[in-house]
Write a structure and sequence with these properties.
The chain is an alpha/beta fold. It folds into 2 domains: 149 residues, Alpha-Beta Complex (Quinone Oxidoreductase, Chain A, domain 1); 150 residues, Rossmann fold, CATH 3.40.50. It is 31% helix and 23% strand. The protein has 11 helices and 16 strands. Strands 3, 5, 6, 7, 8, 15 and 16 form a 7-stranded mixed beta sheet that branches. Strands 11-10-9-12-13-14 form a 6-stranded parallel beta sheet, with helices on both faces. A 3-stranded antiparallel beta sheet has the order 2-1-4. Helix 4 crosses helix 5. The chain is globular, with a radius of gyration of 21 Å.
Length: 332
């Protein structure tokens, strides 16, 4: 079968390539085999190629999330049958024509969802819920009043849109921060009443002050990173927390220790790579919630473009610049 593999660390465009690999193994107890229809090219997938591999490694297949059709079912799997459509995460090696995964990593996909939507069902929604669990906890600890706004940077990104929607579902005021007029248009189209600030424009801090209107801000959810962190911290209450869930800037932070110490500011990171350590009931609830969000807000699970496997370089390039939608690889 065809699979995307790397043998060394480096930029994904340089180290990822397509090769023929042995077929996915037959499923053992508790496992299913899936013929992958489409798989997203997440930015995290691209970042992961920059890490080293163990000595003597036979290479690592790439990809982490997929949608497809069950082709074989191992013993002790009562939940799936051959022919069922599924979304899967975690799905190591998802940029392959077939994968074998634990059955608990899969959810059944209803007929109302396309393969493309199903393929972006889990990672982005789970990340957004992990962020909001942290925000829930921090707002409660700070006894935040109901009118305290949540500032969300990267608000037009795949995860950012889900954070904005679920924050509004909780009844929280939201202020969206984006980097371009195009992204601002995306937010305004989805939520005309949400204040939007374009951080790339002159005087954006004054616009943000007007949007906050002097209300307390105990938590900010940030996906920009880089120099933006230093610019956004003044809007955080003393003792407040910056919840970091992305690195869109891909640049080092320009921040001194004193800027945190003098105001007792805190940083809390949230990463999908840690989700597998969450209790099983939380993981199960996240998967169920992903299906509910897809049913209620399918327009938030946007796809930028889908590329055939033999156009892998174009898919990688597009994934770095797509902005408001996810790039997909078509495997079958």
């Amino acid at each position: 079968m065809k699979s995307v593999v790397r043998y060394r660390a480096g930029d994904a465009a340089a180290v990822a390539h397509i090769e023929d690999r042995p077929e996915a193994p037959a499923p053992r107890a508790g496992e299913i085999q899936v013929r992958v229809s489409v798989s997203p090219v997440h930015r995290g997938d691209l970042v992961a190629t920059e890490t080293g591999l163990p000595d003597g490694s036979a290479g690592r297949r790439l990809g982490t999330e997929a949608a497809g059709v069950v082709t074989a079912v191992g013993p002790s799997v009562p939940t799936f049958r051959v022919g069922d459509r599924v979304a899967v995460f975690p799905a190591p090696g998802a940029w392959s024509e077939h994968i074998t995964v634990p059955a608990e990593a899969a959810v059944a996909v209803p007929d109302s969802l396309s393969d493309e939507t199903a393929s972006v069902l889990l990672v982005n929604t789970i990340t957004s819920r992990d962020v909001l669990r942290a925000v829930d906890e921090l707002r409660a600890a700070a006894a935040a009043p109901s009118d305290s706004p949540l500032l969300v940077s990267g608000a037009a990104s795949a995860v950012g849109k889900l954070i904005v929607q679920q924050a509004r579902d909780r009844g929280w005021p939201v202020v969206a921060i984006v980097r371009s007029d195009r992204s601002a248009s995306t937010v305004r189209t989805n939520w005309p009443d949400v204040p939007v600030v374009v951080s790339g424009s002159g005087g954006w801090q004054h616009e943000l002050e007007r949007a906050v209107r002097g209300r307390p801000v105990p938590v900010i959810a940030d996906a920009h990173g880089g120099p933006f962190v230093r610019e956004i911290l003044p809007f955080l209450d003393d003792g407040g927390t910056l919840v970091v869930w992305g690195d869109l800037a891909a640049q080092p932070w320009t921040l001194s220790t004193l800027e945190l110490l003098m105001r007792e500011l805190k940083i809390r990171a949230v990463s999908i790579t840690r989700w597998a350590t969450r209790p099983g009931d939380i993981r199960a609830a996240d998967r169920r919630a992903a299906l509910q969000i897809a049913a209620q807000h399918p327009h938030l699970l946007t796809v930028h473009a889908a590329y055939p496997l033999d156009e892998l370089p174009s898919a990688i390039s597009a994934a770095r610049t797509s902005g408001t939608g996810t790039v997909l690889l078509k495997l079958n």
